[in-house]
Amino acid sequence: MQKTITIKISAEAAHWARRKAAEENTSVSKLVGRMLEREMRLTDEYWKAYQEWKSLPPHLEWIPPAD
């Protein structure tokens, strides 16, 4: 289920978003929605990987090579 939200952005950002949406033949709403979804997935994947790394036994942690 999609939700409607209202955001405030600078005039410059709004101009960029309109131009970018036109280039991609989509609406500003869909453009921003896709950008937020992508950012959310990337952030979630990072934190999941970080938590998995933290749960590794100490002997499996990465040790940088000696110079």
Description:
With 67 residues, the protein is mostly helical. It has a domain at 11-56. Helix content is 60%, strand content 0%. The chain is built from two helices and no strands. The chain has helices at 11-23, 28-54. Helix 1 (11-23) crosses helix 2 (28-54). The chain is elongated. The termini are far apart.
List the helices and strands and how they pair.
Blueprint: H1 11-23, H2 28-54
Shape: elongated
Using DSSP, what is the number of strands?
A: 0
Mean pLDDT: 90
Main sheet specs: none
Total of helices: 2
List the helices and strands in order: HH
Low-confidence stretches: none
Quote the distance from N terminus to C terminus: 54 Å
**Structure class:** mainly alpha
Strand content: under 5%
- Helix content range of the residues, please? 55-70%
Rg is 20 Å
Task: From the structure above, extract its key features.
2 helices, elongated
Write a concise synopsis of the structure shown:
This protein is mostly helical and 67 residues long.
